[in-house]
Structures are given as structure tokens and as C-alpha cells.
């Protein structure tokens, strides 16, 4: 497992497995310039890191939106080349916000392929508690917008109760923000016709999501910085 502060350590096979794609797909994307080249290590073996994994997730999300390969290439070319895995995850979240809510029915094999890893019964129970998957007639009903997030949370060293409590906080405050923003926009376009309101809504949706994500990321970073500062032991006198 890698983090943003570690050197790339995934082989192409491991990267493909984590991303839920084939090695052939990884090589194809690399040949088209959609993925940056790997770091070449001993024995001329290429190693990949979290940025490659995050970029694959973004490509997958763009495909789910119905974008052609050429359109995906143009989209990625507009992004700064040095985006971190965290920044790429933010872009993916914004892209995912364009899609309507949807639930897919998958076999366990397809679910594990999309998750990029085998799933134990304990993993399925945790994903079920987070409302990511639910058993359904011998298969699973899956929220694809939450699947990658839910799978990543499986490796977070927090008790399930803490994760569910955090989920409740996020839902409560995001709904409150959505209500206040919706009221603000309704007041701003009260005199316009329905077509203009619908057009404005479609235009503002991804912009508002990106603004919320960016604002939350910066606020969380500041809170964590203050928390870590307060947690440092006082210097000895």
C-alpha cells in the first residue's frame, strides 16, 4: 500500500488489480498519454504510485459519464501535470456530481472487479453498513458513486462506529448547506423563466460542488494543522 508521501511501489499488475482494470488497459492508457510514465526501478521494473491510481479512477469516472476517449484526453490535458492523488480525487468527485443518482446490480465477481480487490464477508458487512452495497437476490445492489470511497475506507484504521458517525456529520451538514444554497439561488432567479432556471442549475451544479469540496478541504487541513500543533509536547524548560 502506498501513500502520497511514499515512493511509487506498485507494479503494473498491482496497479491494475487495485484499479479494477486489466494490465492491457493500463498500458493502453499509458501509450495514449493518459497516465504519466512509471518510475523505473531495479531490473528495469516500472513502479506506480497513488497519483496513477487516482488518475485511473478519474478516467473511469469520465467514461461512466459517457465521454469518448478523445474527450477524456482533452480533459486530462487541461489539468496541471503535477496534481497530487488528493487533487485528482477532488476532480473525480466533481465529475461524479454531474451524474444522476443510480444503483447498479452486480454479481460478487463484478463487484470485486470494480472494487479492485477481493472482498471478505467482513468487508461486505462494512460496505453494507455504509449503504454502499446491499444483498439482492443472490447479487448486490451497489451505489457506484460511493463504491471506491467505501473500499478505501476499509483500510482506514478507524472503528466502523466512528466512520458511520463521520458519515452522519457529513450528511447533516451537507444537506444544511444544500438547503441554504438552494434558497439563495431560488431567490436570485425568482423572476426568470423555467428554462433559464434549469440552464443555470445545470451550469452551477458542478461549480458549487467543486467550491464546497475545495472549501472543506482547506478547512479540514487547517483543523488538522491546529490539532497536530496542539498535540505536540511542550518543550522542556
TrEMBL record:
The keyword Ligase does not apply. Residues 9-78 form the HTH merR-type domain. The keyword NAD does not apply. This is MerR family transcriptional regulator. Keywords: DNA-binding. InterPro entries: DNA-bd_dom_put_sf (IPR009061), MerR-type_HTH_dom (IPR000551), MerR_fam (IPR047057). Pfam families: MerR_1 (PF13411). Coiled coil: none annotated. It comes from the Bacteria.
Amino acid at each position: 500500500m502506498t501513500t502520497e508521501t511514499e515512493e511509487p511501489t506498485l507494479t503494473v499488475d498491482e496497479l491494475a488489480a487495485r484499479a479494477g482494470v486489466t494490465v492491457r488497459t493500463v498500458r493502453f492508457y499509458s501509450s495514449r498519454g493518459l497516465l504519466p510514465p512509471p518510475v523505473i526501478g531495479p531490473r528495469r521494473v516500472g513502479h506506480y504510485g497513488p497519483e496513477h491510481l487516482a488518475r485511473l479512477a478519474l478516467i473511469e469516472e469520465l467514461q461512466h459519464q459517457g465521454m469518448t476517449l478523445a474527450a477524456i484526453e482533452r480533459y486530462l490535458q487541461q489539468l496541471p501535470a503535477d496534481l497530487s492523488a488528493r487533487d485528482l480525487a477532488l476532480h473525480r468527485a466533481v465529475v461524479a456530481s454531474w451524474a444522476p443518482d443510480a444503483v447498479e446490480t452486480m454479481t460478487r465477481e463484478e463487484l470485486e472487479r470494480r472494487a479492485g480487490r477481493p472482498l471478505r464477508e467482513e468487508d461486505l458487512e462494512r460496505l453494507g453498513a455504509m449503504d454502499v452495497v446491499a444483498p439482492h437476490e443472490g447479487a448486490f445492489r451497489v451505489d457506484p458513486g460511493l463504491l471506491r470511497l467505501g473500499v478505501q475506507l476499509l483500510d482506514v484504521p478507524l472503528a466502523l462506529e466512528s466512520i458511520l458517525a463521520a458519515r452522519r456529520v457529513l450528511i447533516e451538514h451537507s444537506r444544511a448547506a444544500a438547503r441554504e444554497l438552494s434558497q439563495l439561488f431560488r431567490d436570485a432567479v425568482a423572476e426568470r423563466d423555467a428554462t433559464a432556471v434549469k440552464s443555470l442549475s445545470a451550469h452551477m451544479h458542478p461549480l458549487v460542488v467543486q467550491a464546497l469540496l475545495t472549501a472543506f478541504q482547506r478547512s479540514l487541513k487547517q483543523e488538522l494543522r491546529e490539532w497536530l500543533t496542539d498535540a505536540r509536547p511542550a518543550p522542556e524548560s
